[in-house]
Design brief:
The protein is of the alpha+beta class and 198 residues long. The chain has 6 helices and 5 strands; from the N terminus they run H-E-H-H-E-E-H-H-H-E-E. The protein has one domain: Heat Shock Protein 90. The protein has a 5-stranded antiparallel beta sheet with strand order 1-2-3-5-4, sandwiched between helices. A hairpin with a 3-residue loop joins strand 2 and strand 3. It is globular and about 45 Å long.
Length: 198
Amino acid sequence: MDSTLPPFPLAKQAFKWATSAPPVNLPEERYCQTRDTLTARLDRCGKEALAMGMPEQQSYLLRAIIGEIGNNSFDHNLGSWKDIPGSYFYWERNQQQFVVALADRGQGLLTTLRHVRSSITSHEEALKTAFLEKLSGRAPERRGNGLKYVRSILLEDGLDLWFQSGTAVYSVHNRKEEWAILKENVPGCIAILTWQSS
């Protein structure tokens, strides 16, 4: 499986926004300064996926994944944004694929999780902890199931994900998962979701 950034123009734009210094300006329709903006656009994204032919159940799960990842951008970076608050959120569709990109310029998984488990020392360990263990970066709140839920959806329902924080990447393609380390560093997080029509 190829663990490099998926070859979509949308993915490249989200990656550039998440990593550039100084940050590039985004078209208004791709930038969610607040959680309310992201939530409002989420319904439209789901409707466009349905219009393309995505089954209703998968459309519901797509929205659940976007909601979880998108909300994490706000939940884990409140008061800790490095420069620009909010998230990149946009989608594209063609005859065969529906692609969603999410990104933030926050503190990333390693910094977030080290607040509650100081023994975590690498981006790879932080990423695996986020997707495999029940540990919340918002302790003492009893949370920590979100990305585990995302992973279960991906492995059961056929949506694909490419997720990077720091230099660590988690990807699922055709229900097969892979962990990788890249040279490129994403200070916050970036996620690319893909659905392939039959």
